[in-house]
């Protein structure tokens, strides 16, 4: 086994365990899988591109053949979709649980960040197709367009949009985490910093040595850390619910029991009450 195979599949096992732990916890709290909410379904959808990205990362190699170049192009697509689905999952969660009693400006901040995230994804996706035309030149061994083999311009543009997206999305929940949960806040800030660093290093590796596979180690780390960040609050809440008393006491410093348990009192609920009767939806 190569170092990439060991690392990527180990990280994959961790991510899948967290996702299924989240779904089991949500099943316990909501009563059935049919009651899973939008962010849960987004996380389930994320399994497809994330699994594909891990498989493709182990097939790319040095991109010296047409087949490997096809895998390289597909890997870039799956990596982008995975990372932006994590962002979408977090934004949907924030919309559902953030309380409405906060200021008008804070509500519009979330909407603005969501719009920026969506626009960024569209720009990055379109750029992937425009930098190398026709798209088939990405795996054409005789192409004369350096962007088709190096991905330099696309990588630089992706990095320019990914950094502000990560920073905005990772710091959005900070004002809503109760002060006693300092351990949770510290863990989330550390994870968000690691996500940012791995993303920067991965794309810096491509910009410096586009033909070397060293960026693959960072690609798998970036997507896995993003998934861990998105699922950590649910995992700690599950531990608080199911673990023995001594473990519950420690885990309570990580869980989010004071966040709203339903859409009542959240921005999403406030918008929906004008159109339909209220329905309670638990968060944890």
TrEMBL record:
Membrane spanning stretches: 6-25, 41-60, 80-98, 110-131, 151-171, 183-206, 226-245
Keywords attached to this entry: Membrane, Transmembrane, Transmembrane helix
Membrane disposition: Multi-pass membrane protein
Domain Rhodopsin: 27-239
Subcellular location per the Swiss-Prot or TrEMBL entry: Membrane
InterPro entries: Rhodopsin_dom_fungi, SAT4-like
Entry keyword annotation includes Amino-acid biosynthesis: no
GO cellular component: membrane
Pfam family, one: Fung_rhodopsin
Similarity annotation: Belongs to the SAT4 family.
Annotated protein name in UniProt: Rhodopsin domain-containing protein
Taxonomic lineage: Eukaryota, Fungi, Dikarya, Ascomycota, Pezizomycotina
């Amino acid at each position: 086994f190569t170092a990439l195979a060991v690392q990527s599949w180990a990280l994959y096992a961790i991510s899948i365990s967290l996702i299924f732990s989240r779904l089991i916890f949500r099943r316990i709290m909501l009563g059935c899988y049919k009651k899973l909410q939008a962010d849960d379904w987004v996380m389930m959808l994320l399994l497809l591109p994330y699994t594909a990205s891990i498989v493709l990362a182990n097939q790319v190699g040095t991109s010296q053949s047409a087949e490997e170049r096809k895998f390289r192009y597909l890997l870039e697509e799956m990596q982008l979709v995975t990372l932006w689905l994590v962002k979408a999952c977090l934004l949907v969660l924030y919309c559902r649980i953030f309380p409405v009693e906060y200021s008008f400006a804070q509500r519009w901040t979330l909407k603005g960040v969501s719009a920026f995230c969506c626009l960024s994804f569209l720009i990055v996706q379109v750029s992937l197709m425009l930098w190398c035309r026709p798209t088939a030149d990405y795996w054409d061994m005789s192409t004369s367009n350096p962007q088709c083999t190096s991905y330099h311009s696309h990588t630089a543009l992706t990095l320019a949009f990914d950094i502000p997206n990560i920073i905005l999305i990772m710091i959005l929940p900070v004002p809503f985490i109760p002060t006693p949960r300092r351990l949770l806040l510290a863990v989330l800030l550390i994870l968000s910093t690691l996500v940012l660093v791995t993303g920067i290093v991965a794309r810096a590796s491509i910009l410096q040595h586009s033909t070397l596979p060293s960026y693959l180690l960072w690609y798998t780390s970036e997507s896995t850390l993003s998934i861990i960040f998105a699922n950590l609050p649910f995992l700690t809440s599950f531990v608080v619910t199911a673990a023995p008393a001594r473990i519950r006491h420690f885990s309570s410093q990580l869980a989010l029991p004071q966040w709203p348990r339903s859409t009542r009192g959240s921005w999403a609920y406030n918008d929906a009450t004008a159109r339909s009767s209220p329905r309670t939806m638990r968060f944890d």
